[in-house]
Design goal:
By secondary structure, the protein is mostly helical. It has helices at about 1-20, 40-45, 50-80, 85-95, 100-115, 120-125, 140-165, 170-175, 180-210, 215-220, 225-235, 240-275; strands spanning about 25, 30-35. It starts with a helix and ends with a helix.
């Protein structure tokens, strides 16, 4: 019951209020007028900035999820199958960045990628560049790097868990039948770990869709995520109905992504059960 009450107060009720507010109107003075109107949704669909930014954010989210998966796969595989001692310690190191505040980790990348930052200083010291590389900071590159760093633990942990749940007897059977390490990974380990890979990738994708701090701190003028637009609509523009409508569109897209991921995860989980 406490959990149900918590979810109702901090999740269901706010979503319901945002949904209801998306049908309100705004007068010329920026005051929200209760009512039932589709004006906010019409403005959201008629403005190419909102729809274009949603799909551009989705593209960035897919890119971040792919990079996180590519980084997490060898790391989780090494810990699950190669490390014999101190496995718990290695697992803790993956989760260690989550103990530090998001803002501190984002600001750390400003120090690393800044004009006088660690990376530019090293490049000039090594005579790789003659002057600071401006593109390192306040660009799409810096935003993607920060998001990958922050979200990789969310991907690595479920992938590692999926690897740990694979019966070792299946791997030994594959080797007894003459399969090499790569073939065993491709035909046995990877298919059985797909539910964890999909779960981790979905985490990264959804969290990127809702992130506004990394683009705000590290992104340039051309790096605008849809969450930044929603933040501006609620804050600077004071157009809460339109901000609510755009937020509902993002929520529906995220629900669609989660539904597709859940269906794929269920499909490959059944294959895993049959393999066992």
């Amino acid at each position: 019951m406490p959990l149900v009450i918590w979810l109702l107060i901090f999740l269901v009720f706010p979503y319901c209020y945002i949904f209801i507010q998306s049908f309100f109107e705004t007068d010329n003075f920026g005051k929200t007028i209760p009512g039932v109107s589709l004006d906010s949704y019409k403005r959201a669909f008629s403005n190419s900035l909102y729809i274009g930014t949603i799909f551009r954010t989705l593209m960035y989210a897919v890119l971040v999820a792919i990079i996180c998966i590519l980084l997490s796969l060898p790391l989780a595989y090494w810990i699950a199958f190669k490390v014999k001692k101190n496995k718990t310690f290695m697992y803790t190191l993956i989760a260690l960045p989550l103990w530090v505040s998001y803002i501190i980790r984002a600001y750390a990348w400003k120090i690393i990628l800044g004009r006088e930052g660690v990376l530019n200083t090293f490049f000039q010291w090594a005579h790789i560049t003659d002057k600071p590389v401006e593109y390192f900071l306040y660009s799409t590159f810096s935003t993607i790097v920060c998001l990958v760093y922050i979200l990789t633990p969310f991907v690595a942990i479920p992938i590692y868990t999926a690897f740990e749940q694979i019966p070792k007897s299946l791997i030994e059977a594959a080797k007894d039948l003459g399969a090499g390490s790569f073939t065993t990974f491709r035909k046995v380990v990877f298919p059985l770990a797909l539910p964890g890979i999909i779960s981790g990738g979905t985490f990264a994708l959804v969290l990127t869709m809702g992130d506004f701090l990394s683009p705000l701190l590290l992104g340039g003028p051309n790096t605008l995520f849809i969450s930044n637009i929603v933040q501006n609509l609620f804050g600077t523009s004071n157009d809460r109905p339109l901000g609510s409508a755009v937020g509902i569109l993002i929520l529906l897209l995220i629900f669609l992504i989660i539904a597709i991921a859940a269906r794929a995860e269920k499909k490959y989980s059944s294959l895993k059960s049959n393999a066992r």
